[in-house]
Design a protein that fits this description.
Bound molecules: zinc ion
Strand content: 15-25%
Number of strands: 10
Distance between the termini: 22 Å
Radius of gyration: 18 Å
Structural class: alpha/beta
Strand order of the largest sheet: 3-2-1-4-5
Number of helices: 9
Shape: globular
Order of helices and strands: EEEHEHEHEEEHHHEHHEH
Length: 292
């Protein structure tokens, strides 16, 4: 039975688990990180999970990891905006050497898209956008049943669609990107308080801007569905989703895009680990995940 060592690498925490071919999370451990030089902590966390697994007779056969972008295709090197200590870090080679497992790396939002299509809110769908609205904003697109990669492997980076012309300065160098206007970090900078304490007007504004980005992508790619994960979006809940849907309905008017729907992601806190597992297990799971 295929078991994946699933690794979710973030700017503020790492999570590592063992996930079986049906998507059951059998072991999970997480640890906070400051994002400077995460490898020592990450490799120790992996060792801990492998040791727990050995004790229970759970031995992984492959390793899948989700990591913030940008990255070279396949994670040969990664340069996550949220991990300043990693610039062109050779993540695929380091993980493969450390675990001695066949290792596959993917952008964390693209990994989440695979997970949501496998067992979450997009299960069975062939065409959808998956987004994470959290400290940052990321995304992945499945079109005709295939996860899109693009020329450099970074397809789906919806966080850097401009939603406010000449808006706030973004870490990418542009202005008014979705990430610069609607991420948890940006909301905190605008309001002076954590995103969880954002006033109703800000919740509505963030929902509207996310809906704007979803509408643009839905029109360009003929997508009927967007599933949204992330602590900011899920924390805001219904008022956020209502505002986003209103903006989609207002902007996506061409016939084929009418009715494009936004809904919360289905995997909740398991999303990142199941997504990372899906990166490694996709050849053996649902047909829509076989395409690379
Ligand atoms: Zn940007």
């Amino acid at each position: 039975m295929a078991i994946a060592l699933a690794v979710d690498i973030g700017g503020t925490k790492h999570e590592v688990g063992l996930v079986d071919h049906a998507g059951h999370v059998l072991v999970r451990e997480r640890e906070a990180t400051n994002g400077d030089l995460p490898w020592p902590g990450l490799s120790a966390l992996i060792d801990r999970v492998l040791a727990i697994g050995r004790g229970e007779g759970i031995i992984p056969t492959c390793c899948g990891a989700g990591c913030g972008g940008p990255m070279e295709r396949g994670g040969t090197t990664v340069t996550p905006l949220n991990i300043p200590g990693w610039r062109r870090f050779p993540l695929q080679r380091r993980l493969a050497e450390h675990t001695q497992l066949p290792t596959t790396i993917e952008n964390d939002a693209k990994a989440l898209a695979l997970g949501e299509g496998w067992l979450g809110a997009a299960a069975g769908e062939q065409d959808y956008l998956a987004m994470v609205v959290s400290t940052g904003v990321g995304g992945g697109v499945v079109l005709d049943g295939r996860l899109l990669h693009g020329a450099s492997g970074n397809a789906g980076h919806v966080g850097h669609i401009v939603v406010v012309p000449d808006g706030r300065r973004c870490s990418c160098g542009s202005r008014g990107c979705l990430e610069a206007e609607a991420s948890g970090t940006s909301i905190a900078a605008i309001t002076g308080a954590p995103a969880a304490a954002a006033p109703a007007a800000m919740v509505e504004r963030v929902g509207t801007l996310v809906g704007r980005a979803v509408a643009l992508v839905a029109i360009v790619l003929d997508l009927p569905l967007a599933v949204i994960a992330g602590s900011v979006a899920l924390g805001f809940g219904a008022p956020f989703f209502t505002a986003a849907q209103c903006e989609i309905d207002r902007l996506a008017r061409i016939e084929f895009a009418r009715g494009a729907t936004i809904r919360p992601a289905g995997l909740g806190a398991d999303g990142p680990l199941i997504g990372a597992a899906a990166v490694a297990l996709r050849p053996t799971t649902s047909p829509q995940m076989t395409a690379r």
